[in-house]
User: Which sequence fits this backbone?
């Protein structure tokens, strides 16, 4: 009746998460090729061996000059990609998570947490986690600079710092700081 077709297994690159046949078109192709050579030498030989290169050259319609330009273009794209990754890592290491206590009314206060988004932490789920943990209101709001921050009703500065360090190991301890409290100045009585 119906014949069963065998399942196909597709190999995906651990560097770029694409099939190895497509790695040569990405900026990370050298890293992908190194990974393929280390983990799957037979597939590497099929794609990047001498015979494969000769076959690709025969199929190519580009002149040698255009191929050199394409290779230079790919190298430049790879360098840009590596520089972008380095910049993102540097920004992540230099950014701070700031926990600040805001006084709303005479006895009411709120705690704001800014800077978690840099470490790839979802602010909405974090606000919900804080609200559930402290049994209070928690939300994501825009600060005066127009950037998102987590707002928790109540004074939980130290507890929030402990929770951030425990739940999010990506955030280094040195990058979490509690902002000093700013007291509101009372107006001088007019004479």
Assistant:
């Amino acid at each position: 009746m119906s014949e069963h077709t065998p399942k196909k297994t597709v190999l995906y690159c651990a560097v770029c998460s694409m099939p190895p046949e497509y790695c040569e078109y990405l900026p990370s192709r050298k890293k992908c090729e190194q990974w393929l050579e280390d983990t799957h030498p037979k597939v590497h030989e099929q794609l990047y061996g001498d015979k494969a290169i000769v076959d690709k050259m025969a199929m190519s319609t580009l002149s040698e000059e255009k191929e050199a330009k394409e290779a230079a273009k790919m190298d430049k794209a790879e360098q840009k990609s590596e520089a972008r990754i380095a910049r993102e890592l540097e920004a992540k290491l230099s950014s701070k998570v700031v926990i600040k206590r805001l006084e709303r009314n005479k006895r009411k206060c709120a705690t704001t947490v800014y800077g978690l988004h840099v470490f790839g932490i979802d602010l909405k789920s974090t606000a919900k986690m804080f609200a559930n943990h402290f049994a209070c209101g928690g939300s994501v709001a825009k600060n005066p600079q127009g950037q998102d921050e987590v707002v928790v009703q109540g004074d939980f500065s130290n507890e929030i710092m402990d929770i951030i360090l425990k739940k999010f190991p990506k955030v280094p301890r040195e990058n979490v700081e509690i902002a000093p409290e700013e007291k509101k100045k009372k107006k001088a009585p007019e004479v």
